[in-house]
Amino acid sequence: MYVKCSVFIAASVDGFIARPDGDIEWLHQPAYETAELKGVTYENFIATVDALVMGRKTLEKVLSFPEWPYEGTPVIVLSYQQLQIPAHLEGKVKVMAGDVTSLVATLAERGMKHLYIDGGQTIQAFLEAGLVNELIITRIPVVLGQGIPLFSQVGSEQELHHVATYVSDNGFVQSRYQVTAGAHAAQ
Predict the structure, then answer these.
(1) Which of 21, 65, 118, 157 could be disulfide-bonded to 54 (CB atoms 3.0-4.6 Å)?
(2) In sequence order, which residues have a C-beta less than 8 Å from that of residue 110 and are 6 or more positions away?
């Protein structure tokens, strides 16, 4: 059974998804919040996914937000550690361990057809396993200089097919790619 795995993420022009300490406040500038965005909006994207797969560090960051941003979307957290899920998220967040290929196969057996992959290490693991089908990357007009990279320095080459690029008035540049190389193990 085929499962589509998509990445939808913002990154600085120099390729970081967060500051070294995980801070992402640089994404929340007033000018960014009010601008009309061109391309694939988060709302349109999230409406197409069956579940979101993230790592423990991404969950910890999301738990610091004032409200849960994934209402109505099941969230799977990859972690070998025991995690305490807050009571208000019982039934909304499931912790799973194991390799990503087995995880995708398990989710396919449960009828899931489109997964949203989020978080630096999780994205890198899915890419390395040849499971990512689509990358939607929005470049934010800032250079952080250092931080948590979107892509790791270790890993294999990935061939991409450019689908489209959109430029918004606030300087966001969103590019959409299909990943053309790699074995899609859950097919």
Answers:
(1) 118
(2) none
Q: How are strands ordered across the β-sheet holding 134-140?
A: 93-96, 75-78, 51-55, 114-118, 4-12, 134-140, 173-179, 160-167
Return the H-helix or E-strand segment holding 4: strand 4-12
CA distance 21 to 38: 30
Distances (CA, A) of 94 to 83, 132, 168: 10, 21, 36
| Backbone φ, ψ for residue 145 (5° rounding) | 85, -35
- The DSSP code for 11 is E
Residue with tokens 């270790």: 154
Q: Each residue's pLDDT tens digit in the chain (187 positions)? A: 689 999 999 999 999 999 999 889 888 877 777 777 888 888 899 999 999 999 998 998 899 888 899 999 999 999 888 888 888 898 899 999 889 999 999 999 999 999 999 998 999 999 999 999 999 999 999 999 999 999 877 677 888 999 999 999 889 999 999 998 644 433 3
Domains of the chain in start order, with CATH, are 4-170 (3.40.430.10)
Report residue 44 as tokens: 């349109």
Q: What is the DSSP letter of 179?
A: E
Q: What share of the chain is helix, strand, coil (3-state, %, to 5)?
A: 25, 30, 50
